[in-house]
Please model this.
Amino acid sequence: MLGPSLDRGFGPDRWSSWRPTVSLCQHEDRVIDRLDLLFQQRYNPLAQQVTDDLATVSPETEVRHHHIEFDDPWDFEAVFGALYDFAAGYAFDPDAEDYLVHITTGTHVAQICLFLLTESRHLPGRLVQTSPPKRKASPSPGDFKIIDLNLSRNDRIAQRFETEQLQSLDVLKSGIATRDPVFNRTIEQIEHVAIHSQDPILLTGPTGAGKSQLARRIYELKHQRRQVEGPMVEVNCATIRGDTAMSTLFGHKKGAFAGAAAARPGLLAEANEGLLFLDEIGELQPDEQAMLLRAIEDKRFLPVGADHEVTSDFQLICGTNRNLSTEVAAGHFCEDLLARINLWQFRLPGLTERRHDIEPNVEYELAQITHRTGKRVRFNREAAERFMRFATSPEATWPGNFRDLSAAIRRMATLSTSGRITLELVDQELERLNHAWQASRGFTPVEDPLDGLLSQDDQAKIDLFDLE
Model:
């Protein structure tokens, strides 16, 4: 852009002033082959003077004039439109030419517009910024700096982005140093999608795999980055049925049904500008599924008993332990709704699929107990070895996944004295877990009459025929 103020100068004294457009072509280590000069028609005389001066200081530089017109140089829409039209009509050839966009001249509005058009690659080049010499009377053309908006090429900036990503991953993993490579790759993908997309996310996996906790961490990450301003609203769809489900999700008008003494906004309305987490979405009935589909697509829905629709702009995360494709085939789930929420599906594996992550999760649970109670609890060495040997063995089925693990650690921590989990406490907990898991499978072990009379070692010495 021609600078009507900074580039001005017609008399001999003009050479004693720093003029950005002229100085741009005076650097011996940066030869400008062609200069495309943009200006309004009323500045023709100044443009010609600058062109003549450029022919003196840099005869190898070809200067091309381009008229761009707008009434008000501070009108963002007008300036952006003029520069956009110029960029759209220019025959760029990035494979053969290297482009620099000079952002020192022009109004601040023009500079911002040039920046935006370069960032969006409508101007496929790098920015160049010039500055005057430190001493006014110096014959030096001043300094120039080239700025590449592809920040990944800048090692220091790229390192900051990498640090920021690690912090984001740490948020999603609740600070747990997980080791399972498959799970870590899944979390990396979720982090990228959460930051770069507002589309629904579907989290699948068995009960207790951590879907609810991960949904809260996604909200926390989005909120930190100001991608959501409203609250996180969550509901387990398995806990709502019939009219209660419709009212809970979409709200109702006063008097809409018996007992509706007051109007209720509903969870979708409460989640406006925030995040809605629908856990166990496969439990919704067909009517709720149909209304939810419209609410996702149009951001509009009709509360129970209301005559007018309400709007809510929310981001959606769904969780399920069911195979929704099977549910669709059986006619229990809306195919269109699944297509809408299934753009980003991530499966969270159960604890038995992530045995490498049991130890860091144990450390996390102990740290949480310390934070809540102010009491530091640790395992004795033998106790830790016994518990980890069992927890990571095929014998440990962990049907409740991380809920079972968390409960086990909390029970042992509560029963511990002086903040130490002993071998005895571990043995008691392992017996409790095995008994609970057998009971959950419908198997109740028959009490051995020798228990309490002989130790396990002494019982093992008895001949099998004597046992019969």
